[in-house]
Amino acid sequence: MRLPLHAVVLALMLALLSTYLAGARNGILGVLFLSFSALTLYLIETQRQHGARRTFAAGAILLTLVVGFAGVSYHSDARWRTFVETATIAWDIDESLAWRDSHRYPFPRLANGDLIDSSAYVRVAFIHAGLREIGKHPLGVGYGRNAFVHALRQTEDAQVGHAHSGWIDLGVGGGIPALVLWAE
After folding, report:
1. What is the distance between the alpha carbons of residues 138 and 175, in angstroms, rounded to a whole number?
2. Alpha carbons 122 and 164: distance in angstroms, whole number
3. What is the C-alpha to C-alpha distance for residues 89 and 109, in angstroms, rounded to an integer?
4. What residues have CB less than 8 Å from 115, skipping those under 6 apart?
5. CA distance 183 to 125
6. Are 120 and 87 in contact (CB under 8 A)?
7. How far apart are CA 37 and CA 43, in angstroms?
8. Whole-prediction pTM
9. What are the pLDDT digits (tens) for 52-102?
């Protein structure tokens, strides 16, 4: 759609504001990714029509708007700080073992004593464990929905299923060649 810059900025502001007011933390991530995609496409079109100077100005305005919104959202919603602390704990998969079997190992606690965000914890830990398995088996372990747990059980006791990430499951199952083929 060929819209003037002010219409694009207004539409972007409305999308960001409505997501913020709804308190949709994960929705904000989606809107931010969508905003960056739209920004890229808009800048490509603007560059073709108006040259580099206007493209740079439009890009700076839109990027400032999106980054500013991300900062406001992060500072106004305590769930982001919980997520960041949870992700930091979850990334240390050798120290914190609840991701392997939450019945045998208790979920860790945040610095303030609250429980971590269990969904974020498991997903981040699975990503790290999956990346480690892809490094160990760059050609994969054989594709299947539960390739992730099959790879883990070769070296450790883990009571998990799939990795909750299609990219990790594909990488563990089919290896780096499968990821490259999928990305193309």
Report:
1. 5
2. 9
3. 9
4. 107, 109
5. 23
6. yes
7. 10
8. 0.69
9. 777 777 778 777 877 887 788 778 777 788 888 999 999 999 888 888 888
